[in-house]
Fold these 2 entries.
Entry 1:
Amino acid sequence: MTIQDSGTARPAGRPRSEKAEKAIIDATLDLIGEGMGVSELTIEAIASKAGVGKTTIYRRWSNKEDLIVDALSTLKAPLPELSGTSVRDDLISLVDAMRQESGDLRSRCVMNIAMSEADRYPRLMERFLKRAVEPRREAMRAVIELGIATGELRADLDVEMGMAMISGTMLWHTKWGPAGGLAPDLAERVVDAVLRGMTAS
Amino acid sequence: MTIQDSGTARPAGRPRSEKAEKAIIDATLDLIGEGMGVSELTIEAIASKAGVGKTTIYRRWSNKEDLIVDALSTLKAPLPELSGTSVRDDLISLVDAMRQESGDLRSRCVMNIAMSEADRYPRLMERFLKRAVEPRREAMRAVIELGIATGELRADLDVEMGMAMISGTMLWHTKWGPAGGLAPDLAERVVDAVLRGMTAS
DNA sequence: ACGTTGCGAAACTCAGACGTATCGAAATTA
DNA sequence: TAATTTCGATACGTCTGAGTTTCGCAACGT
């Protein structure tokens, strides 16, 4: 009460290790990145990989799902800078960010989880979607709406359909495309293909 | 050796029940359709749901994965009849088949598994892909190539990109579209959107 | 009739993982 | 120094599910 009293009175005793907390979350994400599904993740494996006692985990999270929620929540969406020179360029930037992420094992597996286990762990996904995918959706929506306003894109374009075309085409490549990473120019090719369409002339 | 000797000599004893086998595979697919991932499926749950002893399962499959491989292999791809009147119509038929399947819980969950657990169970997926998705890919590829030949589609169209655009756009809707099923006219809208592209005029 | 094989049910062993409790050591406050 | 809290490690009891075995019965050939 005398010296350190800024807001919350620090209780006596050894303080919790920030490093341990970070190591736990890191280990969790690493294991997810190694292809583990939510139901295959074990607290014991996480503790072991983090070099931490199970106690230290249970002192912070009451169960496995809580831990995973927090771990996924730390994944932020580093949206690319948009040059704004043209809708095409901005879309390419956004799509290329997707391409680069598809090469990262961790992001890739998180995506897998998001797509397949959303039904089973709804509150886990609710939080993750809000944190990680909503910002990207909004960014792309804004670009498309801008394009419609400036006349670069069809005036009668359904914005949701446009997003589905671009993101879906890219998603398809990340899923069923060649194993060894995606070509660097794929983003450009995808955007041009979608902008132009398949019909002749 | 006297009467029934057509090719394989039937061994003595009670023959294996076809019905039990069918019930086992059905129960497996049902549980998958209820949202269970591969690692959450239990032999005991399958046996219980099928009204069958575990023995009967292990007599046929040596482990869980073998059973799931066989179960998924029985899912056939009922490709739609293609009218052949136009590339647009044929594509709509193919995409609408995807839409209808997306409403079926079982197919939906199988798709989830295929997309997220392919890395973890490679031989499971190898077989499933060959059986279930290759035929559809081939059908769509044939339609697109025909369209290029007849001039309905751009001569310089990348066939793989075209497939990615159509299937990916539809995939996007099945994943992040409205919860209560997809609109009946979605296939038509998707195909027209992809054919036309996003660019103005 | 009789031997053989499959059947469902139940009991069993074994491994893995959960979540808790306990330990001595370390870090911090008073 | 004393009290308090966390640390990593380890042991513990419990539970779930894999895969095996046993049992009495049913279905099939000879």
Entry 2:
Amino acid sequence: MQSERSVPTLDDVAKAAGVSTATVSRCLNSPDRVVDKTRKRVLQAVEELGYAPNFGARIMAVKRSFTIGAIVPTMENAIFARGLQAFQEELHKRGYTLLVASSTYQPDLEREQVHKLVSRGADGLLLIGHDRDPAVYEFLKNQQVPALVAWTYAATAPQRSVGFDNRVAMRRLADEILGLGHTRIGVISAARQGNDRVRQRIEGINDALMSKGLSPTSLNTVETTYDVDQVARAFDALMAVRPRPTVVICGNDVLAVGALRRAYDLGIKVPQDVSITGFDDIELARIVVPALTTVHVPHQKMGRTAAQELVDMVENKTTGASVKLETHIRIRESLAAPQQ
Amino acid sequence: MQSERSVPTLDDVAKAAGVSTATVSRCLNSPDRVVDKTRKRVLQAVEELGYAPNFGARIMAVKRSFTIGAIVPTMENAIFARGLQAFQEELHKRGYTLLVASSTYQPDLEREQVHKLVSRGADGLLLIGHDRDPAVYEFLKNQQVPALVAWTYAATAPQRSVGFDNRVAMRRLADEILGLGHTRIGVISAARQGNDRVRQRIEGINDALMSKGLSPTSLNTVETTYDVDQVARAFDALMAVRPRPTVVICGNDVLAVGALRRAYDLGIKVPQDVSITGFDDIELARIVVPALTTVHVPHQKMGRTAAQELVDMVENKTTGASVKLETHIRIRESLAAPQQ
DNA sequence: TTTCGAAATGCAAGCGCTTACATTTCGAAT
DNA sequence: ATTCGAAATGTAAGCGCTTGCATTTCGAAA
């Protein structure tokens, strides 16, 4: 019998409370437009029936869903997890719900996810990085869904973004490294393909090299996935180069920690035999031994700011300017001057 | 001018293609019910107009949203991130979208999130752990939204679950530890309050103690958050006990890694001076030095299975049985027999 | 060519909610 | 007691989609 009963609707509540649906609706959405006594009665009916509004209907009626979509490459990575969590929390504070999808670094999948989230009525979208088919932006514009790009900052890009300058950030770290006297440099990086952040970081290293009059071609770069064993192999490849690099710059902390571990396994001392650096400053960077020299990125702040900006774009239809966050170098034990 | 144009609807497509809305709808949802020529024309119109279906309307019409909600304590933690990612991927394969919310370990917030996700038309819900106000289950039943509990397994619980037996898993690890001769045991654990998994793991330790004729009261347990410094302090507290524990059992890997690091800072050798164990076997467990002895939990499989089960519950209205996943002990370097 | 049934398409009624507008209620001022 | 305007509530028209049923189309058999 219980199971026969269907989900209560506004109508049911209205009947139970002896008022019109309009009144019930008002009780829920603008309580002050309804007199106390009525409201009490209605709310009681709501409680008794276990009523919950149907969002589909609501979305249709108001043309707003109070839902924000986010498409991240993956949720597994601490880098996105932290920012995403902050993003979600801030969104919640402002009355929005987060719809997430992950593209697993596949452009096609991302494109599909964009369509899906828009269909589902997302009022706005958070995207990671600028790199993607222009058709996606075209579509979003067509659908009048504001999109914000995060984890990177580009003043000149047409899309508004909240993030930091990957290139400059990495350049500063590289400057630091070169200043210590390193000249034989290995790089472990995620795939550059379709990932502007990765490319920018590598360019940052090149910038530093150039400014010292060194040739970028001297860089030994290995691409790898985040898989521990893959990273280990990448590190091996770098260590096989002769003369051996005195420092391995990693595209992010996850890669760096993997390299660190491999060095340990091989009996290569860090930083005595080789220095290793990361990027992002995830919590882990401080925990590993030796602690990782890295670039601190304000992930939480980025997530929070992105949420604020996006909600602003949605609610006020503003276009506004992009937000640039600052990064800071964290010098820790994993970096030292090269051995003589 | 562009900006004046409003989002295209089914109607617009129908007009553009010179057919009825029914035909357009069929083209999109059951292409074989429409003749080739027509379909082509319609799809072209869809393309040209940049049409994307309005899910709100769709949900209302079909009473299904193809959306599954998940409420996790936090996304920051690698433990949930991994399973959640797998959950999402499997969901996507089956044509569902994931709606996530995080409760940040607050029951009230969780309750609110449940309402929200249901309102938003989630066809099913993934919840972590059994511990929560019965009213929540009541509500879900009322709304006819199937819910699946994960990250734990309890044959007797009324809610269906996909997970593993936290108590037995931890007991096995504790048996191993006791078998090595440890008798002075410290425990670092997350808050027990409202977290059945945490409690079960501690009970598992107690089970092992009892079976050896040892008193559970001899256990020194410290609760902490996941914050690195907090964990360090928890470890300090344990190390201050005299006689000092010979092993510190941590409720999960994140805590264990924090303890490991603190031990290093204090010059306490692991496992020579003290053994440390974790739980979950996140990737990190293999990376830290010394590698962590822990309990391997098949997170990805759990996420995937949960997705399958939940979709099944949604589509076939099955109630079925819970799924129990196996865990395995991973003995690594951080555990050794106590010093004489 | 005509006929007929199956296949293709169209028609139109909701789905549950919000909200502009219409109507009723109510308290204060007369 | 009336009157009147503001406050409270009710009425009903959509929002964009799916789908059962009605209608049209079309190809094959007669």
